[in-house]
Design goal:
It is a single chain. Helices cover about 30% and strands about 25% of the residues. The mean pLDDT is about 95. Helix 1 packs antiparallel against helix 2. The longest helix is centred in the first third of the chain and has 17 residues. It contains 3 helices and 6 strands.
Length: about 130
């Protein structure tokens, strides 16, 4: 049996980043049990009905936790990322993000979604799904 790609991603990281990846994976899997998770653009990403909602990347500055529709969450712990609706938080240790905040962000990731799945078809224009 082949190893789980998300586990393999975490295992390939330095110890501090691996601890964050393991923590985030547990929280994301628990909050989004109906989501599909896979390696996408070389990082773990969770999808609801084919639409990316949350993922994380190990960067030099720590682990980047990205919510595709996060700018619409109105959360002070998230900052805008990119030119669309994404927002991020940087996590260097599992203690860097309050579990209640993370769970609230994940609830909003389910409730507030922009249609990234069809962004190319719509020539870069996003439409709100939920």
């Amino acid at each position: 049996m082949a190893p789980d790609p998300i586990d393999a991603y975490a295992a390939s990281q330095p110890d501090a980043a691996r601890a964050v990846c393991d923590f985030l994976r547990g929280e994301l899997d628990a909050a989004l049990p109906d989501a599909t998770s896979k390696i996408w653009h070389r990082a773990p990403v969770w999808f609801l009905n084919g639409n990316p909602v949350v993922g994380y990347w190990v960067r030099k500055s720590g682990v980047q936790l990205l919510f595709w529709s996060g700018q619409s969450f109105d959360e002070p712990g998230l900052k805008a990322e990119g030119k669309f609706k994404a927002a991020e938080a940087h996590v260097n240790t599992p203690d860097d993000v309050a579990p209640d905040d993370l769970r609230r962000w994940l609830q909003k990731a389910r409730a507030i979604q922009w249609d990234y799945q069809n962004i190319v078809k719509r020539k870069g224009r996003l439409e709100r799904l939920v």
